[in-house]
Amino acid sequence: MEATRTKLDNVLLIKPPTVFEDFRGTYVEIYNEVLYKEAGINVDFIQDDISTSTRHVLRGIHGDAETWKLISCLYGKFYLVVVNWDKDSPQFRQWESFTLSDQNRLQVLIPPKFGNGHLVLSEQAIFHYKQSTNYNRAGQFTIMWNNPELNIWWPIKQPIISQRDEGNAE
């Protein structure tokens, strides 16, 4: 397993610990608590979630003040954007993007007070995330995906998005 720092404080890009491929298919160990703790990732995850979406669907940008998230792509490919939304951080409002797929097997560890959103690049994608707290929609914040002050680059200009994400207040 390799954990690499990114330009955003406390956001890590992770290559999973075990990938085995042969003529039958692929085996990937996407989480091993012992290995993650040895790498200094001391987060207790208590909930796993999956969302499936089709090409050009954009979900987010959402986050909350308490939850660590470990993001993986189980199937397909998506463009992930992470935004620092900690008003006390010198990196407040800075963002970084990553491409995650079932081919590169990369993961992104996202700390509390950061938002994340993803845009599906393949025909379909399965987005998996481990969370350190139980999901609480009332505790979430939403950042406009096309906020002109953030100037986030997205691979397409007119994604498919929910009403919640289209007309949200920050």
Q: How would you summarize this macromolecular structure in one to three sentences?
A:
The protein is mainly β and 170 residues long. 6% of the residues lie in helices and 45% in strands.
What can you tell me about this protein's structure?
Helices cover 6% and strands 45% of the residues. It is mostly beta strands and 170 residues long. The protein has a single domain (2-166), classed as Jelly Rolls. The strands form three sheets. Strands 1-2-10-7-12-5 form a six-stranded antiparallel beta sheet, with no helix packed on it. The protein is globular and about 45 Å long. The mean pLDDT is 94.
Low-confidence stretches: none
Q: Any idea what the shape is?
A: globular
Examine the secondary-structure arrangement and name the CATH architecture.
Answer: Sandwich
Largest sheet, strands/sense/barrel: 6 strands, antiparallel
The Rg value, from CA coordinates, equals 16 Å
Q: Report the span from N to C terminus.
A: 36 Å
Total number of helices: 2
The average pLDDT is 94
Helical coverage, percent range? under 10%
CATH topology: Jelly Rolls
Strand content: over 45%
Major β-sheet strand ordering: 1-2-10-7-12-5
What pattern of helices and strands is seen along the backbone? Answer: EEEEHEEEEEEEEEH
Alpha-beta classification: mainly beta
The CATH H-level superfamily is Jelly Rolls
List the helices and strands and how they pair.
Elements: E1 2-5, E2 12-15, E3 18-22, E4 25-29, H1 33-38, E5 47-54, E6 58-64, E7 69-75, E8 77-84, E9 95-101, E10 107-110, E11 114-120, E12 124-131, E13 140-142, H2 163-166
Antiparallel strand pairs: 1-2, 2-10, 3-4, 5-12, 6-11, 6-13, 7-10, 7-12, 8-9, 8-11
